[in-house]
Amino acid sequence: MKVKCAIRRYAGLVWFPLLSLILATTIAVDNQHVFNNPESSMHVYLKSLTRGNAGFGLQGYYKNNISFAGLEEGDILLGGYPHCAYGRFSHAAMYIGNGQVIECYIDLGITVQPIIHYRDYSEVCLLRVKADPAIKRKAVDYIKKFRGGMFYPLAFKSGDRIWNCTKIIWRAYYEQGLDLDQAGDFWVTPDSFYYSCYTEVIREKGR
What we know:
By secondary structure, the chain is of the alpha+beta class. The chain has two domains: 1-30; 76-205, Alpha-Beta Complex (endopeptidase fold (from Nostoc punctiforme)). The chain is 33% helix and 20% strand. It contains six helices and eight strands; from the N terminus they run αααβββββαββααβ. The chain has helices spanning 2-30, 32-35, 41-50, 133-144, 167-174, 190-195; strands at 76-80, 91-97, 100-105, 109-114, 123-129, 150-151, 162-163, 199-205. Strands 4-3-2-1-5-8 form a six-stranded antiparallel beta sheet. It has a two-stranded parallel ribbon with strand order 6-7. A hairpin with a 3-residue loop joins strand 3 (100-105) and strand 4. Helix 4 packs across helix 5. The longest helix is centred in the N-terminal third of the chain and has 29 residues, at 2-30. The termini are far apart.
């Protein structure tokens, strides 16, 4: 009996790493364009770590004076702090009207919050998606269906059980025929929205 248990344990030690290696190899082969793209989120994050930048950056209350005037439903807000690991911006939200945004946090999941907290970022940008208002309303309606959804920082694009602040916005527009991440990355970063050919800057503060 002890011999059989030992064999099973040994088999588990062999098979698990082997299956993990096969899975990793499959992912790498199917996504060579991501690994070869120096602007992908993976490369950006690794470069940031070598510069000592990690996580969301130096969070605080920077009190920018950006105006929210003229925002429309479906507009995207980006916020960032100094030394963020993901690029210039570390957070994203969608404007849903009446001074509110829908966004995603680790403790609250997908939630509706007042827009005013975007004045706390050192870097902030308001984006307009270049699409018909009807499409933008559908994107807003889509994202509202997942209010209360579960947050996970490294949520892959596929699936609708776990989300992060960018995936839910990307998915809302993707379902309407607009891919706001032309890089085809594993994850969507806030900077992906900034550089998308489907968005334009309304106004921004920061560098």
